[in-house]
Amino acid sequence: MKLRAGWLSIVGKRDNNEDACYVDPRYRFFLVADGMGGQSAGERASGLAMEIVPQRLQLLDFEKSPPEQTTKIIDDAITQANYEIMALGELDPKLKNMGTTITFVVQVGGTLYIGGVGDSRVYLLRGGKIQQLTTDHSLTQALMDAGTLTPEEAVNHRYKNVLYRYLGCKEGGSGTSPKQVKPAVGDRLLICTDGVTGGADDATLAKILGAGTDPQKTAEAVVQAASDGGSKDNITGVVIFVDQA
Q1: Is 230 exposed, middle or buried (0-12, 13-18, 19+ CB in 10 A)?
Q2: What are the structural domains of the chain?
Q3: Of the candidates 55, 92, 118, 122, which lies 20 to 30 Å from 78 by C-alpha distance?
């Protein structure tokens, strides 16, 4: 599988950047994290996730690991990161209650494994249509799933940014249930924090992803659009182009 990728993370309208991303030099996996906890805590949590998960993913045979083994190694990597973030939060009072989202795209044997914990997202643009491949672990999403909240009401709901699962809590290590996606030539994927979706809607993202010919410039355009659109958070996006499936 031939992939190209570009990425950008900016502080936006915050005092410090609690987002982080990791792109494997061989384009075998891609990670995005959005830290929380204030001051340096969020940075430590997202940074720790970006250290631990890539190390553990090296256990994968990226050519032929079977699906069950692939899912187990991904989940074990995220569980280990969750454990270490929780442990450090208990040891250092300044880092108490820190946490982070994590979202991933991992390619193994011609299949993309996509998932995460929290409310950072993966989008796929295929045939001009954009779809969200991940599910937010937020209270507003839970309310929508229960049918007590509409998508329109969720946009400005008071629980919009409240998560019930993230790395740094007990539920953070309970599995990711990754989707398996067979890529097609021309696919465009976006991994992003809520700083992107807080300033750019799906139609805007689809237009930028569809018009791009260079993944780095496209990632920069996504981040700029979110900033111009009024995002009040750190803004991070990783864009992946599928050139050969």
Answers
A1: exposed
A2: 2-244 (3.60.40.10)
A3: 92
